[in-house]
Model the fold of this input.
Amino acid sequence: MACCGKLRKLATETARWMSAGKPYRSDRTISAIFTHICVPCEHYKSKTETTGSCKVCGCGLKKEGKTLNKIAWATAHCPEKKW
Ligand code: SF4
Done:
């Protein structure tokens, strides 16, 4: 995805999340999605043992924490509809 496309998508995701009241997934759900869905996915790009990114949307993915972690936002979803 081109840089401008990623920025546009991020702006859309951010607006949706903010208008929904900034909801977060639980720590347990974030960890489960990361470990059982993203890490084994063919589109996952690992950075460290607990952090990486998605090659489809370019977003940051983490096992824990809410900063720069797409999985943490309850309104965000996998671009391949896996979660
Ligand atoms: S967000 Fe979806 S497509 Fe991207 S790595 Fe995770 S499961 Fe794969």
